[in-house]
Amino acid sequence: MNIYISCGHCLKERISLEFYPVEVNDEGVYELTCKSGHKTTSFLQNAHFEILFELGAKAFLDGYTREAISSFAASLERFYEFCIRAIVEQKEIDIKAFDDTWKYVASQSERQLGAFYFCYLSFFNEVPEKIPQKWIELRNNVIHKGHIPTLKKTEEYAEYLYGYMMKILTRVKKGCGQNVFKVLTKKQKLSNTEEMNRNAFTIPTAIDVSVRLPEFNKDDFKQAMEKVKNNKWIQAVSKS
């Protein structure tokens, strides 16, 4: 998949408003040399889970059910991490201490889920919603047993996860306020790139974490999928 980014220098100097395709990567950091020769480091300020969900939705709309389930499941795991990090920021826990502790669970999804459950309980003083067993089994069968799900079952899984994540994310945004945005901008703040060569950007997605309350979480699942279908900012890579 490609996303489309612009040159920060050209925007500031009002030279042009041209967008360039770059291949989506895991870090969310993109090096760009525009037609005018400007070199820019661009930081994607969408959450990692948000991009994974978008890729899953693109795969689903194209009829690739196994790929869709895999991306949706990965999105859920990174969603847990995102919520934990937002709560940690809100509680003003030392970020280095958190990162060192996260290494203990970074390679084990079950431990990350347990960490999320207890972070949620500690912060909101209520039991978090548990993913129904049928969706856990679907995910495991697709990932570990090569199961090929139907479009209908994939859509039901996606719709459940979308509602689940949006509901929890709304709570987290209300409870953690600006600390949600601190998590989104972490990559940029840690970078050694000179300020004049930086360019932070956000692309619209089905989830749109950066949308502020009360406008956040206004779309139902069908509206979110329509948004993905019409999203020109993230597109399949052309081999021609």
Name a few traits of the molecule:
single chain, 240 residues, mainly alpha, 2 domains, 3-stranded antiparallel β-sheet, 3-stranded mixed β-sheet, 10 helices, globular
Provide a descriptive summary of the structure in words:
The protein has 240 residues and is mainly alpha-helical. The chain folds into two domains: 2-47 and 185-235, no CATH class; 49-183, no CATH class. The chain is built from ten helices and six strands; from the N terminus they run βαβββααααααααβαβ. The protein is globular. It starts with a strand and ends in a 5-residue tail after the last strand. 28% of the residues are buried.
List the helices and strands and how they pair.
Layout: E1 2-6, H1 8-13, E2 19-23, E3 29-33, E4 39-44, H2 48-61, H3 65-90, H4 95-102, H5 109-124, H6 133-145, H7 151-176, H8 179-184, H9 186-190, E5 198-201, H10 221-229, E6 234-235
Parallel strand pairs: 4-5
Antiparallel strand pairs: 1-2, 1-6, 3-4
Helix pairs in contact: 2-3, 3-5, 3-7
Task: Describe, in short, the structure shown.
With 240 residues, the chain is mainly α. Helices cover 54% and strands 11% of the residues. The chain has 10 helices and 6 strands.
Q: Name the structural class.
A: mainly alpha
What is the approximate shape? globular
- The SSE order reads EHEEEHHHHHHHHEHE
Total number of helical segments?
10
Percent strand: 5-15%
> How can the largest sheet be summarized?
3 strands, antiparallel
Biggest sheet: strands side by side, in what order? 2-1-6
Mean pLDDT: 91
Q: Helix fraction?
A: 40-55%
**Poorly predicted spans:** none
Span of the ends, CA to CA: 14 Å
Record field, number of beta strands: 6
